Write the structure tokens for this entry.
Amino acid sequence: MATILEKILKAKAARLADLKHSASPEDIEAKSRSLPPPALDFLAILKAPKPSASGGKGIHVIAEVKKASPSRGIIRQDFKPLEVAQAYLAGGASALSVLTEEDYFLGHDRYLRDISRAIPLPTLRKDFIVDAYQVHEAKCLGASAYLLIVACLKPKALADLIALGKEIGLTPLVEAHTEDEVKAAVDAGSPIIGINNRDLKTFHTDLQTTFRLRPLVPAGTPVVAESGIFAAADLKSLAEADVQAALIGESLVKEKDIVAKLHGLLNF
């Protein structure tokens, strides 16, 4: 039986084939390369020190704009992407992650485009990126960064997609879940490494994954903890473990008062 990840990648391949018929890879690449680099530097922001509310060592929050997930279904019924992004800005997020995967997360390219235009924070294109076409799309949509998942890519493809981002002025955030995947991300030259606490094959989540894998990432490379972060104590522990950022979606999106929830998470 196919895993959820395999099903997502199959659907993505079909959508990508259709996209290339409606807008050729050559046209998308030409448009991307004609645009200047993003005004907001995702990597520089994550490398900048972030004090906590009490003045100690803090952590950046990359707040995620997403309507649904395969494991949770619909997370927010009254989903208004731009309003969610505005709440994240008001709550103290350092950057935004915007889902554009349509079949399983109910995202859309226009969410990224509209948010990138309206909100003065760097945006990450959160999708299952397997082709240079999608990286050029990310730039055209206004993203400052894009997600690459080691589990979805062979080593050469991973290295090529990282190099492409650097070439056109976007930051690749490379996601790993195991020791071997962290090593592959490091070997490929990843400027930022995300450690996903959720196993993409089983969707089981364990925050200890970040603490276990953090020592494998070289000094100077920012680390982003992803998934399973629900409380200020989680953020405090991550900051103390020298994790530079936390990507948080579900525990924020589901809240009625997103601003208050984010303020609470950062209050340590």
